[in-house]
Predict the structure of Kynureninase.
Amino acid sequence: MKLNRQDCIVLDAQDQLAAYREKFSLPESEIYLDGNSLGAMPAHLPARMQQAIAGEWGQGLIRSWNDAGWIDLPQRVAAKVARLIGADADEVMVGDSTSVNLFKALASALRLNQGRKVILTERGNFPTDLYIAQGIAELFDAEIRYVDSDEAAVLAALDEDVAVLMLTHVNYRSGRIYDMKKITALAHAAGALCIWDLAHSAGAVHVDLNAAKADMAVGCGYKYLNGGPGAPAFVFVANRHIEDVRQPLSGWHGHARPFEFVQRYQPAAGISRMQCGTPPLLSMLALDAALDVFDGLDMPQLRAKSQALGDLFIRLVDEKLADFSFGIASPRDKELRGSHVALTHAQGYAIVQALIARGITGDFRMPDILRFGFAPLYVRFVDIYDTVEAIAEIMKNQEWNQDKFLTRKAVT
Ligand SMILES: *Cc1c(COP(=O)(O)O)cnc(C)c1O
């Protein structure tokens, strides 16, 4: 039996997370399926930022480092992130970007695993992960071993030369999820450390770093965590490693006693040593406030909704787009899929532009991927229905085939 729009409205009415949408401020009638690239703005943020800027900065000035608690804000934000990724509060540091944190983690891992020189990763990893690994390899005289994005290929490449296995949990293109626990255990058996990139996991996909015995992890603050453009990222180091970790960006905020202004660097005792310099406080305050949306939220329930949205999308694509030569680049099995679904089409870029013109925002990734992110806190089942209907119309009347949609913009 085919689903109709009314069926989707009923699904929304039964959705126990439906009320969370009210906590976000989205443009009227916008269907936003790009929360995996830039999360939507929590509705309470403008007031919080107004207070932070006019009050804490404008009136409190430098006193706010103490009086408004700015100095230990990164630790408080880290505790909120830790809960979402199955880590202890003192295993997570929030600050810098994902790229910078990956640099620190990779360097630390190579130093922990002295004598081994190979960084193992997948060719299809997110480019910044590959670029950072390439920079690290040059600096440490290490070697990168690239394999296909496939569990068997990864496992086959683990040998006694591999110092660190660096993988992204949810692939940014296909949305395919790796079995973190299994792969980490096999990497450990081969004597390698594991770094997981949680950019497309944190805040949408259930993650339990400590259950998987992960060594290190990094992730993004501006995707499903909704911290705002360029929000601080996070880095996780398992407690069993932290005392031995020496990360090379040895800035003063990672020092044991930053305000003694001594000449020699001495790393802080715990995870604080992963800090570098002064954090971007305003962005940190925004992320801090954004994370309050997750207060009391049950992550398995969130994950179940994200899977249901993805399943609905794939079902409707099968029903309504069969005549238009789309491919589905994501796993159909919801257990193997993150919170976005990727379609392929030769005219993918123009189709995405035509959707955006209709108020439906997804994105395009080279060479032919149309990505639709289903942030479970604010995407509705009826949004999925309307999106697939809109794609069907765009294909039927060749709406995509116009110069204004075919010309590439700088940010896709
Ligand atoms: C989005 C994303 C990043 C982003 O890194 P930045 O340093 O924040 O630009 C890194 N890795 C992956 C896998 C991503 O999806």
About this structure: Residues 5-32+298-406 form a domain with the Aspartate Aminotransferase, domain 1 fold (CATH 3.90.1150.10).
